[in-house]
Structures are given as structure tokens and as C-alpha cells.
Amino acid sequence: MIFDLDGVLIDSEQVWDEVRQSFAAAHGGTWTPEATRAMQGMSTPEWGAYLVSLGVRLTPAEASAGVIAEMEKAYAAHLPVIPGAVDAVRAVASRFPVAIASSAPAVLIKVFLEVTGLPVPVAVSSESCAAGKPSPDVYLAAAAQLGVPPASCYAVEDSTNGLKAALAAGMTVLAVPNPHFPPAEDVLVQVRVLSSITDLPDALA
Predict the structure, then answer these.
(1) Domain locations in the chain?
(2) Residue 91 neighbours by CB distance under 10 Å
(3) What is the dihedral sign for C-alpha 39, 40, 42, 44?
(4) Can you tell me the distance from the alpha carbon of 87 to that of 181, in angstroms, rounded to the nearest whole number?
(5) Quick check: bond before 80 cis, omega within 30?
(6) Per residue in 19-61, pLDDT tens?
(7) Contact in structure between 128 and 141 (CB atoms under 8 Å)
(8) What's the pTM?
(9) Do residues 153 and 174 lie in contact, with contact meaning Cβ atoms separated by under 8 Å?
(10) In CATH, which of 2.160.10.10, 3.10.180.10, 3.40.50.1000, 3.30.420.40 is domain 2-11+80-203?
(11) Quick one: CATH architecture of 13-77?
């Protein structure tokens, strides 16, 4: 079972959006209506470059480092774990090998695992892959590290690009749609939809 992080285990998509918007405005960028959805699933280098394309007067590496630093501050103040998510992961981990495959940078995945103490032996950030979601790279890397064929894996996602990535990896995909940024209907019809992460253990019965 391979979990996405943002929007599946922590309610952080809005935090990312607010931090990026504020950072862009503070560094000469101009936010666009499509920017939020465009960056969902991008790897760290990809969204750093995207911020520069919005007019941010920094290098992509400087932009991503600045945003990540602000995210670390936000998480230090409050890690927005989705209610029931930790118990759901523990329940699944008692039955299956589990992993995280996330677009979040490794440092923020580490914060989440340290705070929750979850038994997740494999955690892959797309910043270490050739491309972020909707490319399947991060899911394929997580399956490889688990030593399990992708076709034998479940994936749990919340966003359009994440769902596309898991489908492209050839996995059985479960969606817990993000209420703030709902995934596209034409993608949802290709997966099994759950109303809440708390429904996951029973869905696998």
C-alpha cells in the first residue's frame, strides 16, 4: 500500500498554496488562476522553476528552499494531520508493506514520520526522481524499494495529478478526493473513490 502525503495523510494543500502565494508575492511574482492546480504533484525542482516562471526574482533552487523553510515553520507550529489518518495507516501496515510516495520534499516527509511515529519503512520524494506527478516515477520508485511489482500495489491519492501518476504506474488506485481542490471527474471514474481515509481499512477487507 503506497500513500500520497499531502491531502491524504495531512491537510496541507491549502498550507502549500498560501505559503507559495505569499512567497511569490514577496519576491516579485504574479500568481495566476491555474498556478495552484498546476503545481500539485510537481517535484521540488519543478515547482521551484514554476515559481520563477511567475516572475519570482530568484533561482529555482532559491525559490524552493525559501518555500520549504516557510513550510517547516508552519509544520513546527501545527502539523495538520487528517483525523483518522494515523490509525488508518497503522491498520493497513499491520496487513501490508506500506510506503509513502509524495511530491513533498524529503525533509517534510521526515517531519511527518517523526511526529506521527508511523511504521513506514519506505518514503520516496519525487525530488529524487526524474519527474514529478503525473509522471509515475515516484510510485515506481516506492514499489521498487518495497520489492513489490507495481501491479501488486494499491495507491491512495487525492489530486488529479497524483491519481494520474498512480494509474500510469499500473497500480490499483483508491481516491480520497481533496475537498479543497477536487480531482477531475474524468480521472475519478477510473478509480475507486472513498469518502474518507478512515474508510480505507474496511475497503480492503
Answers:
(1) 2-11+80-203, 13-77
(2) 16
(3) positive
(4) 24
(5) no
(6) 999 999 999 999 999 999 899 889 999 999 999 999 999 999 9
(7) yes
(8) 0.91
(9) no
(10) 3.40.50.1000
(11) Orthogonal Bundle (1.10)
